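Lecture notes, unit on binding sites. The following record was shown on slide 14. It pairs a sequence with zinc ion.
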Amino acid sequence: MLILLVGPPGAGKGTHGKRIAAKRGWSHVSSGELLRDAVERRTPLGLEAMEYMRAGSLVPDDIMLRWIEELLDDPKHRHGIVLDGFPRTVPQAEGLDALLERYGQEVACMLFFDISEEAAVGRLAARVSCTGCGTVYNLISRPPSTAEVCDRCGGKLEIREDDATETIRARFEEFRRLTEPMIEYYQAKGKLARVSTDGAIDDVGRRVTEVLDELCRCRDAEGTA
Ligand SMILES: [Zn+2]
C-alpha cells in the first residue's frame, strides 16, 4: 500500500502522515528527512545528493527514484508506506508510476491537504521555535508561558525562516506552478482524495480516517493487498 501526501506549506500533512502511519502500522517516510539522514550518515545516495545540494541545485529525479526503489526493496516497509514530499511534479509522478509498474504495484491514493494561502500564512505566522532546543510553539494553540522564552530551556523564541510570510508566499507560488499539475495528473487517474484542513487537527484527522477506511474496504473487496 503506497499513500502519497501532498499539500502546500502549513497544511499539516507531516503531522497527519505520522498519525496515519502510527495508527495503521505503516511507515511514514519524509523525503526531506530521509535526504538529511542520508547526507548525515554519508550513505552512497547521501554523498551523491550532497554534491547537488552543495552546488545549490535540486537533487535530480533519477536519484530520488533510486531512493524510492530502496524503500520498496526494504522489507521493513512492506505493510505500507506513507510518502511525504515526493513526488512534487508531473515528471516525478510519471517516473514513480513507471517504477511501481516494474514492481507490480501502483499508488493507492494521493491525499491532498488543501489550505488557502491566507490561512497558511496565518497559521504559520503563529508558529515560533526555540533557537536553543528547537521546540516549536504556536502562539495561538500552544503558547509559551512567558512571551518569547522557551519553557523547556529558557532559549529565545523566533519565527523560523521557513515560516516567514515571504517564504510561504514563494512556496505557494512554486506549489501552484509545479505541484498543482501533478495533483491533476493523479486526479485524472482516479487516485486523488482532497482533504479540507479547515477546523481543528482532530477534525482533519477524522476526514483522513474516513478516506483511508473507505480505500481499505474497496481494496479488500477487490482482494488486493
Ligand atoms: Zn528551548
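Take-home: The mean pLDDT is 91.
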